[in-house]
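Cont'd.
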Amino acid sequence: MLIKEASLQTFTENIFLKIGCSLEHAQLAANVLLRADLRGIDSHGVARLSGYVRLWEKNRINPKPNIQIVHETPTTATVDGDAGLGLVVAPFAMQVAIEKAEKYGSGWVSVRNSNHFGIAGYHALLAVEKEMIGFAMTNASPLVAPTFSNERMLGTNPMCYAFPAGKYPPLVVDMATSAAANGKLEIAQRAGKPVPEGWIQDENGSFTTDPHALKSGGSLLPLGSDREHGSHKGFGLSATVDILSAVLSGANYGPWVPPFVAYLDPHPNPVGTGIGHFLGAMRVDGFRLIEDFKHHLDNWIERFKSANPIHPDQKVIIPGEPELEAELDRKVNGIPLVDAVVKDLNELAEKLGVEGLGEF
Amino acid sequence: MLIKEASLQTFTENIFLKIGCSLEHAQLAANVLLRADLRGIDSHGVARLSGYVRLWEKNRINPKPNIQIVHETPTTATVDGDAGLGLVVAPFAMQVAIEKAEKYGSGWVSVRNSNHFGIAGYHALLAVEKEMIGFAMTNASPLVAPTFSNERMLGTNPMCYAFPAGKYPPLVVDMATSAAANGKLEIAQRAGKPVPEGWIQDENGSFTTDPHALKSGGSLLPLGSDREHGSHKGFGLSATVDILSAVLSGANYGPWVPPFVAYLDPHPNPVGTGIGHFLGAMRVDGFRLIEDFKHHLDNWIERFKSANPIHPDQKVIIPGEPELEAELDRKVNGIPLVDAVVKDLNELAEKLGVEGLGEF
């Protein structure tokens, strides 16, 4: 099913309104989710909507959060999300970072007591709109084992860095710090296809190609896959995300991070509140003239695009290019939803008494 | 040969004095190099000393640089290293970042017109000494090909994040963004041993285990090794380092970065000056009480140390642990130097007319 952005936005807003969000929050949360669908990161878009609702049903999401700054200096702050949707808590925190950067050159906000914030790229790009460099990270439900362990200790903990270019679109590095994002695993599970060696290990810590291994005690592997190929680096990056997002803010970290799925209960003895994010903004003109930066970033992009390809039909891809291509296409042609997602959303609509997708 | 830290420090200072460094700079530069040897990162210590001297002989290193801030806001700055040793330019820049963080909570410095800065960990740890989180990155001579290319476009571009703990030593993530650091390749070259698949590719872009493949048009691979295992993420991280270090400061980036080896000339049409670094410091107490942060980071470390091991004799390694163990050992027992390095250093000493290592 191909659905227009505006229709899906309205549908999603209606769901968020039904669980008690303000109009402003419902619009924002829908906007963040839709951005994932537009950018082709389908695992982080409306496919997760019923997951958020189930968390709300368990009283784990507060639809009317009192999001506030609880500690700050001129360029740093800790924000308490009051158990709100990460989809609205993170944009609040990024706004704080941007305002600090406007005054002092940079702004950095660590967030506690939040929930899943959608795609990191959405938040980092808020800074890019202001001619700033944007940073966004979050910790997440433990699925990844550190090097040498078979215990799930870390989330896929994404890092995002976004830079404003001149004639080219922003350069956006938005990546899980695991070898493969969980969304890719889910695609393989649905298709019943084996995954490449190096993505996951079984309960004994051996590589496996079974996409269902996580259901029997397996775990995702850090970027690098094994020690010989640098999995300790993926682990180090994931640790960095966890510490900046949660040890710094007072959120839960490591294996204490509450699971996104509502059928798993949060840890009985939490070490903090909710999940954590880390957001930052730096004014480009705090370092050099914005025109000079953009000119050179354009030059960087052109040079890398023209790097000698191994296969003539596959050029180097600039980080963020595929997502932008998806966005341009889907804004015009609509967002493709797989049947399982349409069914899930229509059931959700019926349960909450809002218009289903089929009726648009 | 096992040599005491103090003797190697004096030897190294004498070399830097001979090429015209001030006493203060010679001591600092020697200190930074020695720290690599102490921490077991032998590829970045005195093994590189004659390399720095050869660059000086080619007038590519200015022993008496006028290092200065050329652009700033309260929390950001660009520093021009005046072609000085990165070993002294980077500590200057980190000091600027720390002073800004003391006043405003955070400080961020992009550096141009510099040279190789030794290990990133040295610089990041300067912030940790002040109860801050330290960030250090640098670009480097192009040896790494982006995903889908066989052209050397990026350096091994390290990222370092360092955090102060309580009863444990600082947690230090200090990593090349390539699958393997160049130093590991050099060890395999000396030993004449094949390297694992996934570290390098040959001139045609095929995996090879030949450690000498870089001499015949091969290239290092980004962290992740191939597209299926996330090499586009390693490429994205490396790009981030390159942009923050050089596009932001006005240094050379990508394939324009001047080679560390003096027998290769810099690019005839540079896009900036020298190589670039990016350094940052954030006050922990800009986010939460330092005692609370340290308490929770200690808890994080303990929990990860006790994660279930795959093999009972190999526990999870906390980032920075192996380097600290080496440092504690080598501070007491001395620094081991391989014969080739001793020979190289003694020849250097003779050429410059300073006391050789054998005479200590």
